[in-house]
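Renewal narrative, Specific Aim 1. Our central claim is that a sequence can be written position by position from structural information alone. The example that follows is taken directly from our test logs and has not been curated for this report. It begins with the C-alpha cells describing the chain, in the order in which they were read.
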C-alpha cells in the first residue's frame, strides 16, 4: 500500500483567496503593519484560521527585522553566594512570578513572547551570546548588584535594555532605561511603623550588603530611629530567602534576646524571622513586631499575616515592558527612568 503524501501547506495565495483580498494585504496583516483596516485584519485572521496557514517566521523576521520575543534575564552576579542553588531560589521567589505577570500584561496584547533566561555566572556568556545573535528584540534585566557585569555587556550590544533597578554608571547616560522603587522611603516607612507601635529594641534582617536595594532600605530605616532617640538597630544579613531570614533571626536572638521590633528587608526573610521568633517563645506581635517588605503572597499567607511595605512589582514590570517596547519601536527614543513610591500595608504582625 502506497504511503499517503502529506497535504500541501497552505500558502499566502490560499489565504488571500479565502479572505477575498490580495496576497500583499495578507502579508501586511501577518507582518503587523498598523495601517491595515481592522475589519480587513479580522477577515484575514479568520481566513488564516480556516486554512491553517502557518507563517514562515524566518522570512517574517527578515522582512520586519523583529523576532516577536523579548528576554526576561534574571541575573546573579559572580560574587553572590547562598546556601540554596540559584535556580531553586529563582523559581521559589514570588518576585519573579510577579515580574513575569506584570510584563505579560503589556507584551501579550502586542503578541510578543517572553523568554525567561536565568543568568547565574556560568550562564552569563551564553545568555549574552543568545541576545547578540538576534534571538530577541530587547531585554528586561532583573539584577540587584552594582557589580553585575551584565548591564554593561547588554548596553554595549545596541539592543534595547531596561533594568529593574538604578545602578550607578549604567543608566540613561549609557542609553539604558530603568524602573525602581524609592527604597530608602520604604525603609523609613518600616521603621516608622515599628516606632509608632512602641517598639524600642529594634533589629534589621538586611539583604546582602552589595545589593543596592538592600542598602537603600537599611539606610532609609536609620533616620527615624535616630530621631526617636533609640539605639541603632542590630543588623544581621540575610540572602532574601526564608532560610536566610531564619538564620539571621537566630543570630539576632543570640545577640539581643529581648528584641521587640524586627524589620525584614523582604517578606521571605521577615516570614523566616517570624517563624524563628515564635519557635523561641516570642509571640508576634505581642512580644515582638515584625515588618516585611514587598507585599507578596508570602506576606498574606504568613502566620500571623505580615505588615509590610508594598512594592508594586506588577506595575513596575509593566512599566519596564512599556519602556522596552518604546525603544524597540523607535531606536532613537531617549532612555528614561521611572521611580515608584512604596506604601505601608498593615496586617497582624505589627
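The sequence written for that structure reads:
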Amino acid at each position: 500500500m502506497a504511503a499517503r503524501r502529506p497535504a500541501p501547506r497552505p500558502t499566502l495565495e490560499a489565504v488571500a483567496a479565502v479572505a477575498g483580498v490580495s496576497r500583499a494585504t495578507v502579508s501586511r496583516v501577518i507582518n503587523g503593519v498598523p495601517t491595515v483596516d481592522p475589519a480587513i485584519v479580522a477577515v484575514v485572521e479568520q481566513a488564516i484560521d480556516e486554512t491553517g496557514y502557518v507563517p514562515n517566521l524566518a522570512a517574517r523576521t527578515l522582512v520586519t527585522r523583529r523576532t516577536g520575543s523579548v528576554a526576561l534575564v534574571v541575573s546573579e552576579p559572580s560574587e553572590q553566594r547562598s546556601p540554596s542553588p540559584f535556580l531553586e531560589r529563582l523559581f521559589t521567589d514570588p518576585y519573579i512570578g510577579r515580574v513575569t505577570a506584570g510584563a505579560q500584561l503589556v507584551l501579550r496584547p502586542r503578541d510578543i513572547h517572553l523568554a525567561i533566561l536565568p543568568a547565574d555566572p556560568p550562564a552569563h556568556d551564553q545568555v549574552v551570546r543568545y541576545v547578540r545573535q538576534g534571538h530577541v528584540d530587547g531585554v528586561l534585566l532583573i539584577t540587584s548588584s552594582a557589580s553585575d557585569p551584565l548591564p554593561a555587556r547588554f548596553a554595549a550590544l545596541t539592543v534595547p535594555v531596561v533594568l529593574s533597578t538604578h545602578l550607578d554608571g549604567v543608566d540613561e547616560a549609557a542609553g539604558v532605561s530603568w524602573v525602581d522603587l524609592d527604597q530608602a522611603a520604604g525603609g523609613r516607612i518600616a521603621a516608622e511603623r515599628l516606632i509608632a507601635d512602641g517598639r524600642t529594641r529594634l533589629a534589621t534582617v538586611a539583604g546582602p550588603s552589595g545589593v543596592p536595594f538592600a542598602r537603600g532600605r537599611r539606610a532609609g530605616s536609620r533616620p527615624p530611629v535616630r530621631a526617636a532617640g533609640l539605639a541603632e538597630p542590630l543588623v544581621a544579613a540575610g540572602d532574601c530567602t526564608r532560610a536566610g531570614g531564619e538564620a539571621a533571626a537566630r543570630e539576632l536572638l543570640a545577640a539581643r534576646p529581648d528584641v521587640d521590633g524586627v524589620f525584614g528587608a523582604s517578606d521571605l526573610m521577615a516570614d523566616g524571622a517570624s517563624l524563628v521568633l515564635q519557635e523561641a517563645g516570642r509571640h508576634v506581635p505581642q512580644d515582638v513586631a515584625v515588618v516585611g517588605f514587598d507585599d507578596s503572597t508570602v506576606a498574606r499567607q504568613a502566620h500571623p499575616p505580615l505588615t509590610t511595605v508594598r512594592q508594586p512589582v506588577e506595575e513596575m514590570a509593566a512599566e519596564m515592558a512599556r519602556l522596552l517596547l518604546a525603544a524597540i519601536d523607535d531606536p532613537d527614543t531617549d532612555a528614561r527612568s521611572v521611580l515608584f513610591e512604596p506604601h505601608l500595608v498593615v496586617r497582624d504582625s505589627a
